[in-house]
Design brief:
The complex is a heterodimer of chains A (about 325) and B (about 500). By secondary structure, chain A is mainly α. Chain A has helices at about 1-20, 25-45, 50-80, 90-115, 120-130, 140-145, 150-170, 190-210, 220-235, 245-270, 280-305, and strands at about 240, 310-315. Chain A is globular. Chain B is about 75% helix and about 0% strand. The chains are: A mainly alpha (about 325), B mainly alpha (about 500).
Chain lengths: ~325, ~500
């Protein structure tokens, strides 16, 4: 049963990936890509990596999909004029790319199958010494404890992505999708549904954040849920794009990283080294950092989708 | 409490990062002094790290107190310290130059400062990290800050160049990451030297090394993976061009050397060494020939980067030859330093030309030497080092490479070094001759030259002078380089 399911999953992944690349219309590719992300999340779940499954579903399928759809919409007017389909590669070019990729996959497969599991590994050591990290979830232990510097830098990557998008988008002076003046034409159920979904989403994000200490969850998953709420509010016009980043938004964008760095540097005095936590304080400090990071993850993702430098609540 | 000795290692990453965050929080207009203060603090941390390495040998810092393989180690040996110091010098120049340049060109400094300072932090991280996955994260930060810097002009050409750069650099990152995953699967560790001890020379390691190297060669724009560099580096604003050519692309070359000498020495057979050296040689020749064909100043300098980045790879075929190793090693490392300083000087001088005239077409430079004398002088001085003439650091570096190649009996590399120098003289004098030529009848074409702020005129000159200082006395730098060098090379 398990094997049949895995085979189906692997076959589905390959088939979807092929369709994403080969399908004629851009829109179809985008939708199939989102489906691919969801299947990928299932694959991670089958590989007993629920954290990755959560992140893949929320960020890989959900937010990336939303970004791609919004980019597709921005391309629309150009495409309607003359729809040449995707740029056609000459036959020999496609063949060369296929042969090279095939060789790469074959080499990788051969290398991966030939690997002998090493006697000791960093992963097993991390599991064995998890108790020293101050949390009970192995993933959080690695992300915020053993390899905190990677996590810190990855959140900086998000900030840099936002800054980069602004550099490119600012001269265009155009925001992303969503109604500019919502309210009158919107379906009757939108407002009550949002009133239900948004607080629930905030609670879910809070739960994921807290649960990161002892089970799958944490800043990335919580941040993704918050970002999804941001996308929802932006699409229904509750949040409006703004041309400038407000001081509060600036603080939210960098606050988590500053807090992480400050606690990390303080570790040189209060604990054994930079990015070490004093033993008794490890858990509360990690929770504080994760809270700041969740915001620092959610806001750039929402802003990237919004295609604007900032967001403002709609005036009533 | 652990000894605070090597605290300057993490500080070299955290200080520019925190300055970047503060610059974003406050905005460039509210706090124009912020970048300068952050830069000086970073330089102080780097100076302390360098002093410690010079006095006490290689320094290691276990982040979070977790020893590898569990945690990430920052490790500064002589090579890393040399890179940190070169980066600090170039970064100081870029920081001093950028404010006036961006202001004068009407480009928004608002986004430049956080991007550039994060880039500096990530570069320091790249030179210091001894962890293969952490290196991936740092490289990713370096790349993702570099792409928007390329796009800053906002016109069609720079957006296209930035897009191409982004796509290729992301493929490179993925190739690197795949290789690292294989290495971890085989060894159970990500630590650079532990991988070197455990990986061996089996098939999976070879596949992993090939993937990692391909990714890094793309990021370093080594022939035939160079196509993205010239459009990207020549359409960025001048201070960003300087950082991209002198630091970002060189970080890729640095990592190629670092990984082959520390993580995959077992794989470095003569065939592999000759292959990688051959790619370097092809870069030298191809980049130089392209530079000769350009009709604008910045593309000339950008193609010269493609050419110059090939030289350090000539170390790899020589590293396994005992008679050649030590000299080639000193030559390659010194070359990266010399090229970084000279190239940053050249790009900033070209920025002055662009700032002053509003264009950088070679044909329009005739008769302009008087107005731009300081900048043309800086360009000329920097070029003397790129050609490899005494008394510059570029000369010493090439001399060591050349002697190594001859001592090791591998004369083709010596031919490449000499030929590359001659070609550099060709494209260098072509620019200088035009700049010093008499004005066409009726005076220089185009609008009258704009006055340069003194800071912009002085910065490239100072960088060029540094190349001469290092050319006069190489002893301190080479002694530093000896700290923690692999035994075969020391």
């Amino acid at each position: 049963m398990g094997l049949a399911f895995d085979l189906l999953l692997a076959g589905g992944l390959l088939g979807l990936a092929l369709q994403v690349v080969a399908s004629r219309g851009l829109f179809r590719s985008v939708v199939l890509f989102i489906a691919l992300g969801l299947l990928m999340a299932l694959a991670w779940a089958r590989l007993a990596a629920p954290d990755l499954a959560l992140a893949e579903a929320a960020i890989g399928a959900g937010l990336t999909g939303a970004l791609l759809l919004s980019a597709y919409r921005a391309l629309q007017p150009a495409e309607e004029a003359a729809d040449p389909g995707p740029a056609a590669l000459p036959r020999w070019g496609a063949l060369a790319a296929a042969v090279l990729s095939g060789a790469l996959v074959a080499a990788l497969g051969w290398a991966a199958l030939g690997l002998e599991a090493p006697a000791a590994s960093a992963g097993r050591e991390a599991l064995a010494r998890l108790g020293e990290s101050g949390v009970k979830s192995p993933l959080t232990g690695v992300l915020l404890g053993f390899r905190a510097i990677d996590t810190l830098a990855e959140v900086v990557v998000l900030l840099v992505a936002f800054l980069g998008a602004r550099v490119v988008a600012e001269p265009l002076q155009r925001a992303g999708p969503g109604p500019s003046a919502p309210g009158s034409g919107e379906p009757v159920l939108t407002a009550p549904l949002l009133r239900l979904v948004v607080p629930m989403g905030v609670i879910v994000a809070g739960y994921l954040l807290w649960s990161g200490g002892h089970q799958p969850g944490g800043a990335f998953q919580a941040g993704a849920v918050l970002a999804a709420l941001g996308v929802l509010l932006r699409l229904t016009g509750r949040l409006q794009p703004a041309a400038a980043t407000s001081p509060a938004e600036r603080l939210a964008l960098v606050g988590g990283i500053v807090l992480f760095s400050a606690i990390g540097l303080a570790g040189a005095g209060t604990a054994s080294a930079v990015l070490a936590y004093p033993e008794a304080w490890a858990y509360p400090l990690i929770l504080a950092i994760e809270t700041g990071l969740a915001v620092a993850i959610a806001l750039p993702l929402t802003l990237l989708f919004s295609g604007s430098a900032g967001l403002r609540w709609r005036e009533r | 409490m652990a000894e605070l000795g090597a605290l300057s290692l993490p500080l070299a990453f955290f200080l520019p990062l925190l300055t970047a965050l503060a610059a974003f929080l406050l905005g460039a207009r509210q706090a124009p002094w912020l970048a300068g203060i952050g830069a000086l603090a970073t330089v102080a941390a780097v100076a302390d790290a360098v002093r410690r390495v010079a006095a006490h040998g290689p320094q290691a810092y276990h982040l979070g107190g977790w020893a590898p393989p569990l945690g990430v180690e920052l490790y500064a040996d002589g090579l890393a310290a040399l890179m940190l110091a070169m980066t600090a010098a170039v970064a100081l120049a870029v920081t001093a130059y950028a404010g006036a340049y961006l202001h004068g060109q009407g480009q928004a400094a608002e986004r430049f400062w956080p991007l550039w300072l994060v880039q500096w932090a990530a570069l320091n991280g790249t030179f210091l990290s001894a962890d293969l996955f952490n290196l991936y994260v740092m490289l990713e930060l370096v790349t993702l800050t570099a792409v928007p810097l390329v796009a800053m002009a906002g016109d069609r050409a720079s957006l296209g160049a930035a897009m191409r750069y982004l796509l290729l650099a992301l493929i490179a990152s993925l190739a690197y990451l795949l290789g690292v995953a294989l290495l971890y699967g085989g060894t159970g560790t990500l630590h650079l030297r532990e991988v070197g001890e455990l990986a061996g020379a089996g098939g999976p390691t070879a596949v992993a090394a090939a993937l990692v190297t391909a990714g890094l060669l793309l990021k370093a724009a080594i022939f035939p993976l160079h196509a993205w560099l010239a459009p990207a580096h020549s359409s960025a604003p001048a201070p960003a061009s300087a950082a991209l050519s002198a630091l970002v692309a060189q970080a890729g070359v640095y990592l190629v050397l670092r990984l082959w000498l520390w993580a995959f020495p077992a794989l470095l057979s003569p065939v592999v060494g000759w292959g990688l050296g051959g790619l370097g040689a092809a870069s030298v020749l191809y980049g130089s020939l392209q530079a000769l064909r350009q009709s604008r100043l910045k593309p000339v300098i950008a193609y010269s980067t493609v050419a110059q980045l090939g030289y350090p790879l000539l170390l790899l075929p020589l590293a396994a030859v005992p008679a050649a190793a030590s000299q080639a090693w000193q030559g390659a490392a010194y070359f990266i330093v010399a090229h970084g300083l000279a190239k940053a000087g050249a790009f900033l001088a070209a920025g002055n030309v662009y700032y002053s005239l509003g264009h950088d077409r070679l044909a329009g430079l005739r008769g302009l030497a008087p107005e731009l004398s300081a900048s043309v002088l800086a360009l000329g001085l920097a070029w003397v080092s790129l050609m490899g003439l005494p008394p510059t650091a570029g000369f010493l570096a090439k001399w060591q490479l050349l002697s190594g190649a001859l001592a090791g009996g591998q004369w083709p590399w010596a031919v490449v070094v000499v030929l590359g120098g001659l070609l550099a003289a060709g494209y260098g004098f072509r620019v200088l001759a035009t700049a010093h030529a008499a004005a066409p009848p009726g005076g220089p074409v185009g609008r009258p030259a704009r006055r340069l702020p003194w800071r912009m005129a002085a910065t490239p000159l100072l960088l060029a002078l540094a190349v001469y200082l290092l050319g006069v006395s190489a002893v301190p730098a080479l002694r530093l380089l000896g700290q923690g060098a692999p035994e075969a090379l020391g």
